[in-house]
Design goal:
Strand order of the largest sheet: 1-3-2
Order of helices and strands: EHEEHEE
Domain DUF2007: 1-62
Structural class: alpha+beta
InterPro entries: DUF2007
Distance between the termini: 40 Å
Strand content: 15-25%
CATH topology of the largest domain: Alpha-Beta Plaits
CATH architecture of the largest domain: 2-Layer Sandwich
CATH class of the largest domain: Alpha Beta
Protein name: Putative signal transducing protein
Bound molecules: zinc ion
Oligomer: single chain
Number of helices: 2
Pfam family, one: DUF2007
Number of strands: 5
């Protein structure tokens, strides 16, 4: 096992892990639940860490993480569906309710 990413934000660490998993890497997140234990330990000791289970995948996983981090901010704001008026999470490019595409998602495939 090797750590391939350390993140002070557990949600972001989880997002990295989920993306690696989606690409077929075996990953686990350590320290995910220790945020509340911070205080006596140096902060970096309790930051969530993304680990790959197979050392042979570590190098490739780090390259993927670097690519993710180079992408624009993933936390897109929620948007309001122009068709049905529902609030849709920013990472969705279609309305969860009526499948209307994001109004500003220009050029996205149908
Ligand atoms: Zn809708």
């Amino acid at each position: 096992m090797q750590a391939v990413h350390t993140d002070r934000d557990p949600i972001h660490a989880g997002w990295i892990a989920a993306r690696l998993e989606a690409e077929g890497f075996g990953v686990t997140v350590r320290n995910y639940y220790l945020g509340g234990a911070a205080g006596e330990l140096p902060p970096t000791e309790v930051w969530p860490e993304v680990w790959v289970l197979d050392d042979r995948e570590a190098e490739a996983a780090r390259a993927r993480v670097a690519a993710y981090l180079a992408e624009p901010e993933p936390d897109e704001p929620d948007w309001i569906c122009p068709n049905c008026g529902e609030t849709v999470d920013g990472f969705l490019d279609r309305c969860w309710n009526c499948n209307t595409p994001h109004p500003e998602e220009g050029g996205a495939p149908p």
